[in-house]
Write a structure and sequence with these properties.
elongated; about 10% strand; alpha+beta; 6-stranded antiparallel beta sheet; 3-stranded antiparallel beta sheet
């Protein structure tokens, strides 16, 4: 190919092989007065003869039309004489972010700034229905001016299209692919959020959150395992950081951040604690020793010999000049730019307004009585009040926790399909915890969702215990701890103690009274259960669920006629 003329470009050297094609340095023959070089990428597997370039051309055209200072620009889209699709791009001097990370983790404020810049750019792309879906640290360029350029946006598929495989393997690095891309190929902007979460983790630790010795183990790690927990994050609130990554790298996209604005909003809110005392702190660490992973960008796993590895600088189309010292200050992005100066459309920096907070609290408190009644109509009314509170103050976290509680009730007790409402319960609880990480109501709501829908007993227990540690007399917390965690786990004595404490705190609650009877029923203390159920029926004879469970108790005592009579009510 060297010396060959393609359209108006003369190829002078090969830069490397990238996704779906090869990249060359080429002389622009139209620029006769001075030598002007471009990066020319030929998509050899995509040509007009078999119409395989139709979708790719459409995607590239979308990228060409999307102009942004942080996107690596496409200057021209054309075809060779053989009908092969090719593009031309300018050549920037700089290094891939992946190469910079090889020198060690980035400074915390730098990593956050890079992530926010990427989020800002992709948020705008998502608004135009353009997803990247090939986002990885080797596709982010750091220029000599400390700017970033996101590459290969033109190789993205449109939302709703399936992920394609090449020779049975993913067409780009598995290490950054979201679980849904690996499992079934159904993708949207939340796949980009996953990939950006991986990149941020990599910038902070110098290694990737998921690893494996081959494709199969790596895929299994992404689909099934939790990322290695980050320790010692130079942070006064490490639980906020851990929670951030739990959401960014949630296996189910329904539990992930739903958009780049939400991702960036939360990241920006914890940026201050991330960077606290950075200069005096020790390096970031994780639980396990650094694994040997991901040096080969083509297949995402560590080859047997490092001689088989092409360096990132050779693979990237934008590197015209190799950099001998990758930690040179000129290549440290945003070295002087405050994080607060990075603006992302849709994000509003929280401003405390006593008047709005007071109005939000009033609306929230008006909804609480309806929350206690547990009928569908009352819960809808409570949700209306809670939403009104959020309209007045979007940062009033108790309202999010209240909405989460409503979705839990509707899902757990069958008013709505659990699949339709329980993910919403999780998201609302997470929103509350993003704002106020130690909000007991949100911790309890999240714990209930984890226990009843996810069966994630370990994290459910942690959140229940933390919530009740912060608010020991929280009646709903004691109630749900008993019925949603302790009872299913077979801890009947502890569940009875918890529900009796809740009943002492709220002796007039028929729901708590009913749950108390239910705990004794499960513990096979039938006579005590009967007393609690009969006490409720004296006040509310038509309480259907209580009649049902009383009938179950009578059946256990072999009182079949009485049980049948109750069942017919």
């Amino acid at each position: 190919m060297i010396g060959k003329i393609i359209s108006d470009y003369k190829i002078t050297e090969k830069i490397g092989d990238g996704d779906k094609g090869s990249v060359y340095k080429a002389l622009d023959l139209n620029q006769k007065e001075q030598s002007s070089y471009v990066a020319l990428k030929i998509f050899s597997d995509f040509n007009s003869e078999n119409n395989s370039n139709v979708v790719l051309r459409e995607s590239l055209q979308n990228a060409y039309n999307f102009k942004h200072q942080n996107i690596y620009p496409i200057e021209n889209i054309s075809e060779t004489e053989k009908g092969e699709l090719f593009i031309t791009m300018p050549i920037f001097e700089g290094m891939a972010l992946s190469q910079r990370i090889k020198s060690g983790p980035l400074r915390i404020r730098t990593a956050v700034a890079v992530a926010l810049k990427i989020a800002q750019t992709l948020s705008e792309a998502h608004e135009q229905d353009i997803c990247h879906l090939n986002l990885k640290s080797s596709n982010v360029l750091i220029t000599v001016k400390g700017e970033i350029k996101i590459m290969d946006l033109g190789l993205a598929r449109l939302p709703g299209q399936t992920a394609k495989l090449k020779n049975g393997k993913a067409s780009h690095s598995i290490a950054y692919l979201s679980p849904e891309q690996l499992a079934n190929g159904q993708v949207d902007q939340r796949s980009d959020i996953w990939s950006l979460g991986v990149i941020l983790y990599e910038m902070l630790t110098g290694q990737l959150p998921f690893y494996g010795i081959d494709h199969f183990e790596l895929t299994e790690s992404i689909l099934r395992r939790s990322p290695q927990p980050i320790l010692n994050l130079h942070s006064s609130s490490p639980e906020k950081v851990q929670r951030f990554f739990e959401r960014a790298l949630a296996k189910d996209p329904e539990y992930r951040y739903q958009g780049m604005v939400e991702f960036a909003n939360h990241l920006k809110s914890i940026a201050g604690s991330l960077a606290a005392d950075e200069s005096n702190s020790t390096p970031i660490s994780i639980h396990t020793p650094k694994p040997i992973i991901m040096e080969n960008e083509e297949n995402g796993v560590q080859p047997k010999s490092r001689n088989l590895v092409n360096a990132h600088l050779k693979e990237q189309i934008i590197i015209e000049k190799k950099v001998e010292n990758p930690v040179e200050p000129a290549y440290e992005p945003f070295s002087g730019e405050p994080i607060d100066s990075i603006d992302i459309p849709g994000i509003e920096t929280p401003i405390y307004d006593p008047q709005k907070t007071s109005e939000a609290r009033d609306a929230y408190e008006k909804g609480l009585p309806y929350l206690e009644r547990w009928t569908v109509e009352d819960l809808k009314t409570a949700k209306t009040f809670f939403q009104s509170a959020l309209d007045k103050d979007p940062h009033f976290a108790p309202a999010n926790a209240g909405i989460s509680t409503i979705y839990n009730i509707l899902g757990i007790y069958g008013a709505y399909s659990p699949k339709s409402v329980m993910p919403k319960a999780c998201r609302e609880a997470q929103k509350a915890l993003d704002i106020e990480s130690d909000l007991p109501e949100a911790l309890i709501a999240l714990a209930s969702q984890m226990a009843t829908f996810e069966w994630d007993w370990e994290n459910a227990e942690k959140n229940f215990e933390r919530g009740l540690e912060l608010k020991p007399d929280y009646v709903t917390g004691l109630h749900w701890y008993a019925i949603n965690y302790l009872t299913p786990r077979g801890y009947f004595k502890e569940s009875i103690d918890a529900i009796n404490k809740a009943l002492q705190l709220d002796p007039d609650s028929l729901v708590i009274e009913a749950t108390t009877g239910l705990q004794y029923y499960y513990a096979r203390q039938y006579d005590i259960a009967i007393k609690h159920f009969q006490k409720i029926l004296q006040k509310e004879p038509d309480f259907a669920i209580v009649n049902f469970f009383l009938a179950q108790v009578l059946r256990q005592k072999l009182l079949y006629d009485d049980a049948l009579e109750l069942s017919l009510i």
